[in-house]
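Technical note accompanying the year-one report. For the benefit of new consortium partners, we illustrate the data format agreed upon in the data management plan: each record pairs a sequence with a structure-token string. No post-processing was applied to the example shown here.
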Amino acid sequence: ALMLIHAFSTASSGFEDLRRFASLPGRDRQDSARLPARPLYRLVPQQPKNGGRRALRMTDLLRGFPPVEAEGARVLVLGSMPGAASLRARQYYAHPQNAFWRIAGELFGFDPIAPYAVRTATLAASGVALWDVLMNCARTGSMDADIEPETIVCNNFAAFFARHPLVAHVFFNGTTAERLFMKHVRPHLAHGPELRCVRLPSTSPAYASVPYAEKLRAWRAIIPEAIG
């Protein structure tokens, strides 16, 4: 059995409210930024009787970040959902062993340990927007495999592409971001067939089997000048 704490009377109605919210027109990113900083509600699994296994571990409904974006963006880089370290820091790719900022620093000429505001501003000024596929989901850890599919709510990409008509290339930071976007987002985009979508090696430390040099070579594709 599950005990529902805070915000909604049932989990199913709560998820439906979020999906309707995510599809609202106008000021969509500003609206999403008004979501509470804490998880909207928590599903707490109760101990089963007779020592049986619990059906569900404690999970929080997580909320992602607004995009890093600037006028004139030509490239969109997508992850799936910020990991635990990023959510704590309120920064994209905050885990110290994630290679994203090291790679981006080499590609765009900034110090990967510079203040976060400097890194994101340099990336945006270079024509690269940064976001995640999901606005909300429940996840028991930091791994993409722990995302509970029935809880996912995608970001409003129709509004994003309306703001950034020059973005024609989408690069995915790993397999999960690609799978979520291609399944839940691209079929609903008016200009979806015009997008060029490319999966890149994940920068997560969980995928350390791919050498850094190989990841760096693959990620050079995100440089707008290389796209033409």
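Partners are asked to follow this layout when depositing records. The radius of gyration is 18 Å.
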